[in-house]
Amino acid sequence: MTDAAPDLDAQITRILREDRGRLLAALIRTLRDFDLAEDALQEATTRALVHWGRSGLPNNPQAWLLQVARRAAIDRIRKSKRHAAAEPEVTRLMEDDEADRAADAPEIPDERLRLIFTCCHPALEEKTRVALTLRTVGGLTTREIARAFLDKEAAMGQRLSRAKAKIGAAAIPFAVPERTEWDQRLNSVLMVIYLIFNEGWTAGPSEEPIRTGLCDEALWLARLMAQLAPEEPEIEGLLALMLIAHARHAARFDPEGALVPLDEQDRTQWDGTLIAEGLAVLDVAVARRLPGPFQLQAAISALHAQAKSPAETDWPQILLLYDRLLALSPSPIVALNRIVALAETGALTRARRELSTLSDALSGYQPFHAAVAELANRAGDKGAARSAYDKAIALSRSDAERTWLAARRDGA
Amino acid sequence: MQYLALIYAEDGAGPQPGDADFDSYLQGYMTATKTYQDAGIMRGGEALQPVETATSVRIRGGKTETIDGPFAETKERLGGYYLLDCKDLDQAIEMAALIPTAKHGTVELRPIMHVEFPDQ
Q1: Considering the domain A330-412 in this protein, what is its CATH number?
Q2: What residue segments make up the domains of chain A, in order of their start?
Q3: Does the model's ipTM exceed the 0.90 cut?
Q4: Which residue in A172, A176, A178, A184 has the most chain B C-beta atoms within 10 A of its own C-beta, making it the best mutation to test that interface?
Q5: pTM for this one?
Q6: What number of CA atoms fall less than 13 Å from residue A254's CA on the CB side?
Q7: How many Cβ pairs closer than 8 A exist between chain A and B?
Q8: What is the third-level CATH fold of A4-108?
Q9: By C-alpha distance, which of A308, A344, A339, A309 is closest to A325?
Q10: What is the pLDDT of residue B54?
Q11: A17 to chain B, minimum CA–CA distance in Å?
Q12: C-beta atoms surrounding A411 within 10 Å
């Protein structure tokens, strides 16, 4: 038995890693209470360690956990509330429980789509949506999320409790949104996943592994979304975009940890398998003929990924895609990227003129100053280049970026 | 779930009496109210006199103090409210979006807390 214990631990960890979100979603659906569902599942897990250690894994560990969690929830509800007030929840739990016992092989309904939409509800602050999604759907601990976002664990814990309390008190529905709301609400989910990816993307190799691990977490969430809501081209677009970006991971930093920009990367280090998967997913999305911002961004990434060398990059096509992206979702950041593409097509003077119109909107945005510096440098305007690099360095969020920018400034 | 929709706007923002679009603004309120009534979710709602008519009351040191004016000096002032009984926050947001002032001001949705008093 003592030999089996570490193995059992690993098995339970694996079951929870794969099915925690699913079990939690099923519990929340019945309980309508995030905290109670988490506590009940936690209790079931603790009991599983004891029980399974004695009698081995049950036939259907997930169903076992769900059943024990439901009963733990019933106990907690009965203890905490006056009996009458607790009746509706208890009745629902018992009905679920009986239905499962009547079935030969109870199937746990997959309610994770509801869970994701609830966690990414626009009535919650954006950072809260990210944290709650990682906690409940992704199964990260509060401590891990705090580390990943360079936050204090206590502050992150408070943020999560406030969110769960608000979901209950304000009756944020545990539901997949109506068709009329679908596009907007789906976009909120996709933005959360993309934010998680970007947080991992900006982290340098010297930082905590949990930060760079956010890229994998985001890919996992996007794949889950693609599975739960199939035939949605924007989900596929986001997945393709992140796959292609992630393929460049190994080439993005030099051995000292400094950032290597796209045009200086060793393209043989790009992960061909990830790029191929990204391109294939993008093809499927585009064939649905419902273009959207994530598909366009993925298409731009795809053009970069397909160029054998920087010189072979199809900048006119990229500029065209940015024009469409800007028309579809106008924002100063898209405008900035479009101008960079414009400069690459050779229109340096026009690009610098257009860039100056963004200075108010993007004065606090590091890549804006880096672009100003870069184009000034190319135009031979060394003074303007150096002062813009200084601004970019001051706004930089990682050592890798700062090191790279400082080297550019010193070379200007 | 009952929600109080608190309607805030800056003084002088939005259509004013005499403006060409003031009638359609008022009409918007009538439409919203009728929608709430027809859906059976209207539990109350009124417009408030301007903030200059406000009196704030508090008790300090056992004495009642009154202040001429609102409790908080903010640019956006509370101008009215609806009390709506919705199935969830999604419906409350959809209903609040019908309030014409949302176009230039802000509607704050606050769920009502049900306080149970102990039986006497």
Answers
A1: 1.25.40.10
A2: 4-108, 330-412
A3: no
A4: A172
A5: 0.87
A6: 13
A7: 28
A8: Rna Polymerase Sigma Factor; Chain: A (1.10.1740)
A9: A339
A10: 93
A11: 31
A12: 9
